[in-house]
Write a structure and sequence with these properties.
three-stranded mixed beta sheet, about 140 residues, 6 helices, mainly alpha
């Protein structure tokens, strides 16, 4: 074994083949822009994957990953703003599973429904509409 390889092992840096497994399972990105020197466990495929995933997710406002499991190719998302963003992320990470996808989907669709309702209510002139029609209109958006 070369002295440099011994150094990498003693410094607990992941071997090249395991690093490449992580990189090859994720969407392509510019690895030179990722601050790997800020990582604590340079020998953890989970942490390296999380660093790369979070770098890629920085294209969306505030979205980050949690509970990354490289072996199972799973992670959770936090702070997804809307259903459209969720679907873009799912498509991009097609080789991975987002374990909280259903909860985020349900929440984001509910938010969009509420936003639509708020826009309709705040921008609609109800002054000349019979009360029964207003009730029927609002019933459509009840939870």
């Amino acid at each position: 074994m070369t002295k440099y390889q011994e150094f990498l092992e003693s410094a607990r840096v992941i071997p090249e083949d395991l690093f490449n497994e992580v990189v090859n399972s994720l969407p392509e990105c510019d690895l030179t822009k990722i601050a790997f020197d800020e990582m604590y466990d340079l020998d953890s495929q989970d942490e390296i994957a999380e660093m790369i995933i979070n770098f890629i997710l920085s294209d969306w406002n505030y979205v980050t990953s949690e509970e990354v499991n490289f072996e199972q190719k799973t992670f959770q998302l936090t702070d997804v703003e809307c259903y459209k963003d969720l679907e873009e992320i799912v498509k991009l990470f097609s080789e991975w599973t987002i374990t909280n996808y259903d909860e985020i989907k349900e929440w984001s669709l509910e938010q969009e429904k509420n936003k639509e309702k708020d826009i309709l209510i705040h921008n609609y002139d109800f002054s000349n509409i019979p009360l029964e029609d207003i009730k029927e209109f609002l019933k459509k958006y009840e939870k």
